[in-house]
Amino acid sequence: MRKLTEPKAGGDYRLRKMVANDLDAVMAIESVAHPHHWSAELVRRELGHEWSTVLLCEEPDGRGGMKLLGFLILWLVHDELHILNLATAPEHRRRGVGRTLLEAALARGRQHRCVQATLEVRRSNDPAIGLYQAFGFRAVGIRPNYYVDEREDAIVMVFDF
Ligand SMILES: CC(C)(COP(=O)(O)OP(=O)(O)OC[C@H]1O[C@@H](n2cnc3c(N)ncnc32)[C@H](O)[C@@H]1OP(=O)(O)O)[C@@H](O)C(=O)NCCC(=O)NCCS
User: Fold this and answer.
1) How far apart are CA 121 and CA 22, in angstroms?
2) What domain range is 96 assigned to?
3) CB count in 10 Å sphere of residue 54
4) Does any domain span residue 81?
5) Quick check: is 7 in a domain?
6) Smallest Cα–Cα separation from 73: which of 90, 55, 49, 57?
7) 108: which of 21, 71, 76, 82 lies 20 to 30 Å off by Cα?
8) For residue range 105-142, what is the model confidence (pLDDT) as tens digits?
9) What total number of domains does the chain contain?
């Protein structure tokens, strides 16, 4: 059986940090990823926080450039890694992009000697919950009506390094 940490065949994924010029490409993914997505201003503000990192996963576009497949926003605060956002472009899902980004985020947490990673996920978000569980995240609680617009609960998940 393929291990979760092995990239899927054919993936030539490159990771780098987001810069201001990437905002449009990031927003193209963000705006279709969530029922109530982050605004461009909110994403842009992350670039100014020294505790925040926006990781991008790209692959060559076949024309000499790179195409954005997905991104992840993380905060490193004291000994805790917090994952605030993760999204893969709909046409590139199930190709290991989310896994690649999550792995890179956890590697950063390890480098910073974090003891725990935390995140919130919609109760109905089976793909994301499936991904986090596959990495060893476990549900530790519920925040009722956390996503106020749909009155949907958040599941709080943690990962112990
Ligand atoms: C959740 C999300 C980021 C996953 O990204 P992805 O690039 O498709 O994920 P991967 O291809 O790396 O999948 C890794 C593993 O996650 C789980 N997974 C991913 N999508 C799944 C799905 N639709 N159903 C069940 N499990 C799923 C599987 O275990 C999968 O491994 P497998 O393909 O070998 O079975 C993507 O579905 C997405 O962008 N969703 C909308 C935004 C969102 O909900 N973000 C999470 C916010 S908390």
Assistant:
1) 25
2) 14-160
3) 22
4) yes
5) no
6) 55
7) 21
8) 999 999 999 999 999 999 999 999 999 999 999 999 99
9) 1
Atom of ligand 1 nearest to the CA of 29: 39
Number of neighbouring beta carbons within 10 Å of residue 50? 6
Which residue type sits at 111?
A: Q
Residue 9 is assigned to a structural domain of this protein? no
Strands (E), 61-151: 66-77, 80-88, 116-122, 138-147
Domain assignment present for residue 8? The answer is no
pLDDT digits (tens, 9 = 90+) for 41-79: 999 999 999 999 999 999 999 999 999 999 999 999 999
Supply the pTM of this predicted model. Answer: 0.94
Q: What is the CATH number of the domain that holds 103?
A: 3.40.630.30
pLDDT tens, position by position, 76-102: 999 999 999 999 999 999 999 999 999
- Residue 128: its H or E element: helix 126-134
Q: Which ligand 1 atom sits nearest the alpha carbon of residue 34?
A: 42
DSSP assignment, residue 7? P
CA of 131 to the centre of ligand 1 (A): 5
